[in-house]
Amino acid sequence: MSAGRCAGQLIKTGKVFDLGIPLGADGPQPGGGRINPVHLMSQTGEDQVFPGGFKFADDYIFMPLQGASQWDSLAHVFYDDQLYNGYPASDVTVHGAAHNSIDRLAKGIAGRGVLLDIAALKGVEWLERGYAITPDDLEAAIQRQGGVSVGPGDILLFRTGWRRKFIQEKDAHAFMAGEPSLGMACAQWLRDRDVAVVASDNWAIEVLPGEYPDVALNVHMVLIRDMGMTLGEILDFEELAADCAADGVWEFFFTAPVLKFSKAVGSPINPLAIK
Known about the structure:
The protein is an alpha/beta fold. The protein is 22% helix and 21% strand. The protein is built from eight helices and 15 strands. The longest helix is centred in the middle third of the chain and has 10 residues, at 135-144. It starts with a helix and ends with a strand.
């Protein structure tokens, strides 16, 4: 039986959970590196004259492709002048990525999703900035959640509570100043289970400040460049986590297709979990 068919059978009640954050000016990007989406109206109906009274509105969005809930492509991060799958880093130019670009994921990402609630495991609304999640934390969350399995081809979502922190505090600078997230040892844990994709409710998947002062974003380098794992960032798991805690079901059908931007290294998404 195909993985997609197996995942489809997880849909029991038809409940749909929107895991994406709004694409708006009040998002968590304070500027500097990336900005929040800028919405521009090009037509409002004002001064329009058409037969029969017809009028229309039209608009534009200007934004970083990774300015809200988004996927990192496998061309997003590299080191030693090499991309994932042995392609040279010189394949990424001002014209885009010749290999591993986000449009290569056009048929995904869809499959069995599993949520591990690490903040709930620790009994807090959100983990502290700089807390490095360990494999033991992931295993403890699995046991707390009834032994839900995490295995080959799965899309692993993990909740740190960082989205709740932003919703309550409305402080983009605090949201971006660091975060609790995966420590380096989790990369081997993910590889041992052959997890396909990992996504979080924070902005970088990995703990910041990092565990190694002389290395930047080491978890990104291993997961993307070495393992070929697409990363999802800045998702909202609050409603889903509450429902999972209520019914004890931590697995679901997950889907979050990319927008097919040619040669791009990331894409905004509208991720959904269906139970």
